[in-house]
Specification:
mainly beta
């Protein structure tokens, strides 16, 4: 099925792609606050995308927005669409064959919730943020989490300015910071056949 959000994606696309072989793995791509356009709309800025399977479950984690100190709010935006895309072709062609989409919205009292839907905009699961949701074989959670990203910013700046490698593997300048995350777990066989391979990537788009 073609991605029906192709036009808005062209206007505000942030894409990370991974080639995943369906043996035990943890695949991860990172890209924090690097593009000027993303800096102007922080909730659209993808931080990390993790995908792995354990037993019969496919686990997906997408982080986005800016780093938050403890006590700062999450980065929800009802004008953004978050996409999880899967190319399951026998020969990868870069076209998505299955998609999951996530939107955030507020109720009349201003409380935030989120909704996970399929390519036809059928709701698979929905409910409040900061709550583990479960519906049949799918589960999801969205909210603030301790950012798993590890980066020696001090060493990076020093290396660039001096030309001398100055990284310290024990120094993590983003330790203790939070970031907004979407977590989804679905049956692996609902995405791809056993023994096959897939490509998966995440996107954000303005609506």
């Amino acid at each position: 099925m073609k991605n029906r959000y192709a036009k808005p994606l062209q206007q505000g696309l942030r894409r990370l792609s991974l080639l995943l072989l369906l043996t035990p793995f943890l695949a991860h791509a990172a890209d924090h606050q690097e593009a000027p356009r993303a800096s102007a709309q922080l909730s659209a800025d993808i931080g990390d995308y993790y995908a792995w399977h354990s037993d019969s479950q496919l686990n997906l984690i997408l982080t986005f927005g800016t780093f938050n100190a403890p006590g700062m709010p999450a980065s929800y935006d009802s004008n953004l669409l978050y996409g999880f895309h899967f190319d399951t072709s026998e020969t990868a062609d870069g076209e998505s064959d299955m998609d999951l989409y996530v939107r955030f919205a507020q109720d009349d009292q201003g409380a935030w919730g989120f909704r996970v839907s399929d390519s036809s905009d059928n709701a698979l699961i929905q409910g409040a943020v900061e709550t583990v949701l479960a519906n049949n074989d799918i589960s999801a959670w969205a909210g603030l989490a301790d950012d798993p990203f590890f980066f020696d910013q001090t060493g990076f700046v020093s290396t660039v300015s001096t030309g001398t490698i100055s990284f310290d593997p024990a120094r993590d300048d983003v330790a203790g910071l939070n970031i907004t995350a979407i977590v989804i777990q679905v049956p692996l066989d609902s995405v791809v056949a056993s023994g096959s391979s897939l490509q998966t990537w995440a996107t954000t788009a303005s609506q």
